[in-house]
Amino acid sequence: MIKLGELEKLIEITLFTGYIKDERPVSLLIVAQPESGKTELVKKAKRVKGVLYLTDATAWGIINKHWDDIESRKVRHLIVPDLTVPLGKQTETRKALT
């Protein structure tokens, strides 16, 4: 089992991958029991340059509002602290995200 300090380091390293020249950023999915500290850890990352922190999202909303920043690499990582919110939408909306 990973400890919170180790997970915090893993998040930090993942965010650094967005700045490696000519490489694609690494993705990270954190899965753990409720109340294990996941959300509090990722909330710290929302202050990091290049991070777009979204509590709710649709594919249309991301493309419509944030695509230019993603394409220009102003945004290098998307953080969604709780996937149950965007994945709890209607079937067609949810399918567009996956």
Mean pLDDT level: 89
The geometry reads as globular
Number of domains: 1
The poorly predicted ranges are none
Output the radius of gyration: 14 Å
Order of helices and strands: HHEHEHH
Key terms for this structure?
98 residues, mainly alpha, 5 helices, 2 strands, globular
How is the topology of this model organized?
Blueprint: H1 4-16, H2 38-45, E1 51-53, H3 59-71, E2 77-79, H4 84-87, H5 91-97
Parallel strand pairs: 1-2
Helix pairs in contact: 1-2
Summarize the structure.
This protein is mainly alpha-helical and 98 residues long. Helices cover 46% and strands 6% of the residues.
Description:
This protein is 46% helix and 6% strand. The chain has a two-stranded parallel ribbon with strand order 1-2. The chain has 98 residues and is mainly alpha-helical.
